[in-house]
Specification:
Oligomer: single chain
Number of strands: 11
CATH topology: TIM Barrel
Strand content: 5-15%
Number of domains: 1
Radius of gyration: 19 Å
CATH superfamily: Aldolase class I
Number of helices: 15
Helix content: 25-40%
Distance between the termini: 29 Å
Structural class: alpha/beta
Shape: globular
Order of helices and strands: EHHEHHEHEHHEHEHHEHEEEEHHHH
Largest sheet: 9 strands, mixed
CATH architecture: Alpha-Beta Barrel
């Protein structure tokens, strides 16, 4: 794992005020592939995950323990985890196969899965106790009550209670828990008025009940202004605003915070990355080809029974592109631990699978998911992004 220094000030910052070392988490196989309206094979998922791990990513998101009938894209979740843990290529790199001494040094790869409900948490714990489950799970709340209910099926108060108990039992099983806060800057439910103060309140509440880290998420591309991104993440890294928890943790500790940006326009998303960097954020998530978003509502042209779509532009937004984010970091001489030649290989393979999906969509006369990475499509970043790399 990329070793993040204890001291996040002074020599840790570059002359542009950005960190010298960042930790990039790759979530293509969960957040990226879940948006494709087809079943991606277990072989492909494992191949992509192995490629990403060999490229140097120390945190990868594997799957979603959502209801099997509503999310058939992940019905092979146990098999994917089993294959990774026993992989001849990467098994020896995984946290579950490391010694205590190696883990204390941070010398491991961590596997994450999404667990929105208590049943999902229990499935993850069961898999872990059987020797192949996730090292880290993700719980999520939305500051927009309507979005939260649509996403989880629960009211916020009930979900907070469930999350507190889930964190407790996960920790007892040796699993870390990420608390994700969504709809910070907006929601697909347009009557919602976002509040940065409310988002910070939710962040602190997650940490108070024991979350190990926090994902700050824009899940629908609502964050379109660099200054809005910088303002929020400056709040997150401000000790006076964040304070300390009952366990003594400094809630402004940058190692606690992960930036997660979906975007309709990739240049806006990448500008948000730079804004978060300049505010001191050192952990970021991204997906190959810049795809990802709401789980698919159809499979090969047929609606999934019980799915209720609530994003109006499902195919018109995705995560910030891994290829572009890595290029930004390396342009700034920020250490990522990523081998770009190996990343290129897995990126090409992923793009080929995306093209296969789009060919199938054309035959079905269904909408396509385009590759949105500037580095793949154009071979360079636009001036609207690179200009920000040259000034504070």
């Amino acid at each position: 794992m990329t070793t993040l220094p204890e001291n996040t000030n002074g020599p840790y910052l570059t002359k542009l005020g950005t960190p010298k070392i960042v930790e990039l988490s790759e979530i293509s196989v969960r957040d990226g592939l879940q948006s494709l309206e087809t079943i991606v094979s277990t072989d492909d998922k494992v191949r992509f995950l192995e490629g990403l791990i060999l490229s140097g990513f120390k945190r990868v998101e594997v799957a979603n323990y959502g209801h099997p009938k509503l999310m058939p894209l992940f019905n092979d979740i146990d098999e994917v985890f089993k294959r990774l843990v026993n992989s001849e290529k990467v098994g020896h790199l995984l946290k579950q196969n490391k010694t205590r001494e190696e883990i204390e040094k941070g010398d491991f790869v961590e596997l994450t899965a999404v667990t929105i409900t208590r049943k999902a948490v229990d499935r993850a714990i069961d898999a872990r106790l059987k020797g192949y489950g996730p090292d880290r799970i993700l719980q999520m709340v939305s500051t927009c009550a309507k979005h939260h209910k649509a996403n989880s099926g629960m009211e916020l108060d009930d979900h907070w209670e469930m999350s507190e108990e889930s964190i407790k039992v996960a920790h007892e099983a040796g699993i870390l828990v990420n608390g994700t806060v969504s709809t910070i800057w907006g929601s697909p439910f347009k009557d919602f008025v976002p509040s940065l103060d409310k988002a910070i309140e939710f962040v602190k509440r997650f940490l108070d009940i024991g979350a190990d880290d926090i994902e700050h998420a824009d899940h629908d591309g609502s964050l379109t202004d660099y200054n809005d991104a910088y303002t929020y993440f400056s709040m997150v890294t401000d000790p006076e605003i964040m304070g300390k928890g009952p366990d003594g943790r400094d809630y402004s500790d940058r190692k606690l915070h992960v930036a997660h940006f979906h975007t309709k326009n990739m240049d806006e998303g990448l500008r948000n990355v730079i804004a978060a960097l300049k505010a001191g954020i050192i952990r970021f998530e991204s997906a190959l080809s810049g795809i990802g978003g709401e789980p698919a509502n159809k499979i090969d042209g047929e609606m999934i029974p019980g799915r209720r779509p609530y994003y109006s532009t499902h195919f018109n937004h995705g995560l910030v592109s891994t290829e572009d984010v890595v290029d930004i970091m390396h342009r700034l001489d920020i250490k990522t631990g990523i081998d770009t030649s190996l990343l290129d290989d897995v990126s090409k393979a992923f793009k080929e699978r995306l093209e296969e999906f789009n060919e199938s969509q054309r035959k079905l006369e269904e909408e396509e998911m385009r590759c949105r990475s500037f580095m793949i499509n154009d071979g360079e970043l636009p001036a609207s992004v690179t200009d920000l790399l040259e000034s504070r």
